[in-house]
Fold:
Amino acid sequence: MAGVPSTMPQRGNGRSGRLTVLPGPYVACAECVIRKSALFRPVSEEHLSWTQGYRSAQMGLPAHAHLYQEGDTPEYCWTLYDGWVKLYKTLVTGKRQILRFAMAGDFLGFEPDLRGPMGHAAQALTDCTLCAFPRSRLAELFRARPEVATQFAWMAARDMRLCQEHLTGLGKKPARERIAYLLLEIYHRQRHIGEATGRLVPGQRLAVPITQEDIADAVGLTPVHVSRTLSQMRAEGLIACAKGEMTIMDEAALREIAEFDPQLLQARPLL
Structure:
């Protein structure tokens, strides 16, 4: 595509990896399986082809590569079409705080100052496909399609609410409650994505391409503490674990432990 380089080098993670423009033809927005959980959810069918004109390309990012680093000024924002990305900050001590795990439908790369640097880093946990939108055209898109701006505001408010819940956990809740909340959040977000895409996983299983170290960095604990807490949860029949997969065995009990309300993740119109 004109004006879009075919590869974009990523830096800073010690692994090879490039954000690559995928060959077309691209998935049309009208046929997008994740649209019900993404930015263009409220756009009517007759306007989708026009709105699609704001997308520059679909891009691929391999697992472990960075989409951007803290301090970068990327040219694009992205809708995550497929895959998992972790957003995190690194302190001067080298310690890391994971801010959230992004999944299909999430919008990445937006900052209050779209001409300024990113305040966090984004690293792929799995191979990812992303739809790229020039940062320079987002204001134009929001003015032209107010319903997209409204959807963006709802998505930002949802993420802020989740951040507030995790911040409360970090400051005031014990390890068991923090971990239970994170597991339920991941589970219900995956259920919503599965319902939207028709790829619903049977039962109460969830794919978890995250390590115990990732969980520790997300909930402010050590990996040893996370391992011990997960072992206790397994022994109590709350969860079951296999390689890259976890099953919620007793959701009601976990919800009581975590004080988790799944309605938080339900999309509702703002206006």
Confidence is low (pLDDT under 50) at residues 1-6, 8-16. Residues 146-172 form the longest helix (27 residues).
